[in-house]
Structures are given as structure tokens and as C-alpha cells.
């Protein structure tokens, strides 16, 4: 997080606490293991890798963010279906106010409908809308601000085949991260992903943290896979509504509310909306970004077009070996 941004907001929210957390983050970073990331140096903190900006955001969030017990967190490693999960969640949660012809999702990018702990932290600390109960984050389970677990917040986690996750992340990096920096060769980026030295990685550790927590507390943590959502979105929209304590009534089911939500949040529909084709979000932050970058193909198995068989096999083997004994598999059809 840029110091100017922190200073600008520090006068609003507990200035001293924020400055303290900011100074703490600046002191911690030089003491950490450092590695070359895809586009900037990355640092190992509590077992995961981040660039310095995200890391400062994480340390600030850990020090300052206080969850409310009614908060529900949408958690994910980047490029595993966060945008889709946000859209589905928002549509489910607001269905009595809006339908598919009036939903804010038609004019607002899903990331603008559900705030994110890392990118919207300052707003959440200073002017949190009391009606905001859904929040999102890419931070790993073991590094979540303590109050999230202590307050018993519910969590939905979505994960994805690591091969598609890598490809999606790489394509995203090509479009945005390499605008201002020299791109590293894809083979090198792949190697780093396989070593676990990648943004928010190791990927398998990110997944395992939430997987194990979901086994311990299934009533608090709903664990989803992108591929299963793609296969039967209707089933999972129902599961989400039940998990959020807002199950669909028989009347809603008969009226086709679930199918309408699935259709409205489909890749085809969202990616063709004007706001997602030409809009940008987080314009007032250092993270401004074109909305269309979050809608690329939305397919399962797109890795087949981008990775060699050897690369795909290597990543599958690494991940499955790391997951072995956990009861979870990410690259095998179940
Ligand atoms: P691809 O790059 O494979 O197309 P995230 O939202 O976590 O950044 O993940 C982005 C991935 O989700 C991209 O995958 C994107 O195309 C896909 N995606 C975005 N919206 C989607 C939707 N409504 N349905 C299915 N996939 C979607």
C-alpha cells in the first residue's frame, strides 16, 4: 500500500494505529526471505509469498481489521473464480430487492459489489457500510486477521485445477502486470509456480489451509471447486443460499429465481455487459484495472491449449503429491 495513500487516510481511522501498523510492515519486509517474482520481488511471510504492496496490506489488515460475526468471507487464491463467486453471492443475497433486469450487477463489476479486504481495506476501516456483510480476500486461511476466525464468521472458499489457475494467472499477468515491467519467460514463471514461489502461493498450501478448516468446521466453511460449479451451477447456487441462511422458498424455485441468477451470473452474460467490456474499477486507488481482464474464457481445461503435456504432468504430480492423504484432489476427475 502506498505511503501517501496510507497517510491520506490516516487522519480518518485511528491515525496512530494505522501509522504504527504501517511502520511495522516497513520494518518486517526487509527481514523476510525475498525472491524474484513474475514482475517484482516477492517476500515470504507466514509461509506464503506476496509483493511488498500486498504484504503491507496484509499486515495492516492483520493489525487493524475487526470482523463482525455476521460477516461472510469469500476466499480464494487469485484466478480460481473469485469474480464469479462474488457475482453469484451478490445475486443470491440481493434477490428480494433486485431481479435480473434491475440488479446492480448489470452496471457494476462484481468486484465493485463485494469489497475486498486487501484492495478496499482503507474504506473498510474508515467508512464501512453497516449493510456490507460480504467481504472477499485472497489471503490464506492461516494469515487471516484473527477476528475473522474468533468471531465465527462464515467462509466460502473456491479453488480450481492448478493447471487452469496457472494459465489464467499467466494470461492476466501478460495483460496487466507486464505493462510496466519486462515479462519473465513463461517457463520460468511456471517453474516458480511449481516451486510454490508465486503470488499468494504455494497454491496447494492455500487450498489445503481452507480444505482442512472446512473439514473441521463444515458449518462455518463451505469449500467449492470451480469445475463443480461449472458442471452444476444451479445446485451450487442453492448450496450458497442455504449456507448464507437465505434458502430459496418453494415459490422462488417455481418462479425460476435460481435459474435466472445462474443465467445472469454466467460468463456469457457478465462478459458481454457494457460495464465489463469497457469499464474500469478501483479508479480512485493504485489498483485501477480494466474490468474485461477478469473475463477471459471461463473454461475448464483451457490449460490444454497453453501447457505442454510435460508441464501439465509435472504440475499435476506436484500438487497431487502435496495433497495426498488430505482427501482432496484437484487434477483428477472424481
Ligand atoms: P480464465 O482466465 O481461465 O478464463 P478470478 O475471478 O479469481 O480472478 O478468476 C478469473 C477466472 O474466472 C478467469 O478464468 C475468468 O474468465 C473466469 N470467470 C470470470 N467470470 C466468470 C463467470 N461468470 N463464470 C465462469 N468463469 C468466470
TrEMBL record:
Keywords: Transferase. One of its GO terms (molecular function) is sulfotransferase activity. The keyword Transferase applies. It comes from the Eukaryota. The keyword Amino-acid biosynthesis does not apply. Its EC number is 2.8.2.-. Belongs to the sulfotransferase 1 family. This is Sulfotransferase. It comes from Cephalotus follicularis (Albany pitcher plant).
Amino acid at each position: 500500500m502506498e505511503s501517501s495513500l496510507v497517510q491520506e487516510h490516516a487522519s480518518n481511522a485511528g491515525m496512530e494505529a494505522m501509522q504504527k501498523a504501517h511502520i511495522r510492515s516497513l520494518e518486517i519486509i526487509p527481514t523476510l526471505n525475498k525472491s524474484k517474482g513474475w514482475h517484482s520481488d516477492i517476500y515470504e511471510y507466514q509461509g506464503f509469498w506476496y509483493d511488498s504492496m500486498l504484504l503491507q496490506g496484509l499486515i495492516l489488515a492483520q493489525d487493524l481489521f475487526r470482523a463482525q460475526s455476521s460477516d461472510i468471507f469469500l476466499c480464494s487464491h487469485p484466478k480460481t473464480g473469485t469474480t464469479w463467486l462474488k457475482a453469484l453471492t451478490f445475486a443470491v443475497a440481493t434477490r428480494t430487492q433486485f431481479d435480473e433486469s434491475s440488479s446492480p450487477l448489470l452496471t457494476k463489476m462484481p468486484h465493485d459489489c463485494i469489497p475486498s479486504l486487501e484492495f478496499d481495506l482503507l474504506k473498510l476501516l474508515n467508512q464501512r457500510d453497516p449493510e456490507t456483510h460480504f467481504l472477499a480476500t485472497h489471503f490464506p486461511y492461516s494469515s487471516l486477521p484473527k477476528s475473522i476466525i474468533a468471531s465465527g464468521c462464515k467462509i466460502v472458499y473456491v479453488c480450481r485445477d492448478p493447471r487452469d489457475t496457472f494459465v489464467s494467472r499467466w494470461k492476466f499477468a501478460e495483460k496487466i502486470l507486464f505493462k510496466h515491467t519486462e515479462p519473465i519467460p513463461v517457463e520460468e514463471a511456471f517453474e516458480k509456480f511449481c516451486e510454490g514461489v508465486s503470488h499468494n502461493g504455494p497454491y496447494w498450501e492455500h487450498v489445503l489451509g481452507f480444505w482442512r478448516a472446512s473439514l473441521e468446521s463444515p458449518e462455518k466453511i463451505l469449500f467449492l471447486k470451480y469445475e463443480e460449479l461449472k458442471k452444476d451451477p444451479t445446485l451450487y447456487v442453492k448450496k450458497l443460499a442455504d449456507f448464507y441462511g437465505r434458502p430459496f422458498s418453494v415459490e422462488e424455485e417455481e418462479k425460476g429465481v435460481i435459474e435466472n441468477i445462474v443465467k445472469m451470473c454466467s460468463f456469457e452474460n457478465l462478459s458481454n455487459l457494457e460495464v465489463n467490456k469497457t469499464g474500469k474499477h478501483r479508479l480512485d486507488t493504485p489498483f485501477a484495472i480494466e474490468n474485461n481482464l477478469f473475463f477471459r474464457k471461463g473454461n475448464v481445461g483451457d490449460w490444454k491449449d497453453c501447457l505442454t503435456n510435460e508441464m501439465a504432468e509435472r504440475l499435476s504430480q506436484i500438487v497431487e503429491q502435496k495433497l495426498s492423504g488430505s482427501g482432496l484432489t484437484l487434477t483428477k476427475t472424481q
